[in-house]
Amino acid sequence: MSTETERKKIIVRTSIIGIFTNILLVIFKMIVGIVSNSIAVILDAVNNLSDALSSVITIVGALLAGRAPDKKHPLGYGRIEYLTSMLVASLVLYAGITSLVESIRKIIHPETPDYSVVSIVIIAVAVFVKVILGTFVKKQGEKVNSGALTASGSDALFDAILSTSVLVSALVFTIFHISLESYVGVVIAGFIIKAGIEMFIETLNDILGQRADKELVLKVKGLIREEEGVRGAYDLIINDYGPNKKIASVHMELPDTMTVAEVDVLTRRLEEKVYKETAVILTGVGVYSYNTHNDDAAAIRDKVQKIVMSHDFALQMHGFYIDQVKKTMRFDTVINFGETPSKAVAILTKAVNEEFPDYTVTISPDVDVSD
Fold first, then answer.
1. Count of alpha carbons within 13 Å of 325, Cβ hemisphere only?
2. pLDDT tens for each residue of 267-304
3. Which residues partner with 240 through β-bridges?
4. In this predicted structure, what is the pLDDT of residue 243?
5. CB-based contacts of 51-55 (< 8 A; 24+ apart in sequence)
């Protein structure tokens, strides 16, 4: 069985467990809420219902995302999981807003609750069940790298805290006859809204594209630099096409004595090694050459690097190559986001030309993506 097939099975199985558990909680809490006339318990049941619907959406997303690549979508459908995560976030946000409105209405027009020992026991058991469910779902989500599943698990653990507040308010009313129902409902609604907004923003960032994970970047670059002759790895761009599907491009700095055949062998070896160690697919490997015939080139490179790095907007210089016969030099510079690339290149070109007026200087600006 393939890793992707096993991953899909885990997501579906875990989500089904979540659906079944949350439906049972909805039934019990709704009965307790109606019988005891408790708005807080009813809203807690509504929150569990939204969790069940979230699990349904997660299953649908996993099944759709697992579709094989085709002519229209050659890189697969993995990003559908991000869309389903956004639907889950929207559902949570909606549940929070409706709960807030209902709680405020109950504050304005209060109703006295009436708890029994059985109802309090049911609420206490529900808290325990939610803790177990949340821990299980979150672990499974982290295991298979499912954002929707991890979010559902975190939401379940959070629900346990909210259910605890409902339990406390029930005990307070039973012992002291002080009704905190509607106010606890407002607190619950506020936390649900906050969770929905955070989930929405996190998923939106995944869809827009975020800076690659630093540990992953260092791992990939380290694997490349291990190879003999490779001076450095730069311009690493990792594109995310869904959980567990990352496609990347990179530039290597190699000696100018290497043949095309040698570069081809090195590239293929690196593609296999990087995928095996990180599951990142290297689809594009560019090459910078560095001078090996002339010691003067190294000295000039050091001078140019000192000039470039004296400017605050320059984060890194790489890919330097000089032709002392034709009087040309070229290199790349990583520019921070506070400076316009064209303006930065003009400033650097002028500064380098002042030190080396006989040379034609070509500078390529790079975006600060992963360096």
1. 2
2. 999 999 999 999 899 988 999 888 887 778 888 988 99
3. 246
4. 64
5. 51/18, 51/22, 51/152, 51/155, 51/156, 51/159, 52/18, 52/19, 52/22, 52/23, 52/26, 53/91, 54/88, 54/91, 54/92, 54/148, 54/152, 54/155, 55/15, 55/16, 55/18, 55/19, 55/22, 55/152
Start-to-end CA span in the chain (Å): 37
- The per-residue b/e assignment along 147-184, b for 16 or more CB within 10 angstroms, e otherwise, is bbbbbbbbbbebbbebbbbbbebbeebbeeeebbbbeb
Give the span between the Cα atoms of 172 and 38, in whole angstroms. 13
pLDDT recorded at residue 326: 92
Per-domain residue ranges of the chain = 3-208, 214-367
| The CATH number, out of the four listed (3.90.980.10, 3.30.70.1350, 2.60.40.10, 1.20.1260.10), of the domain defined by the range 214-367 | 3.30.70.1350
Span of 165-169, 351-355, 356-360 with lowest mean pLDDT: 165-169
Query: CATH number of 3-208: 3.30.360.10, 1.20.1510.10, 3.30.365.10, 3.40.50.1000?
Result: 1.20.1510.10
d(CA 199, CA 181): 27
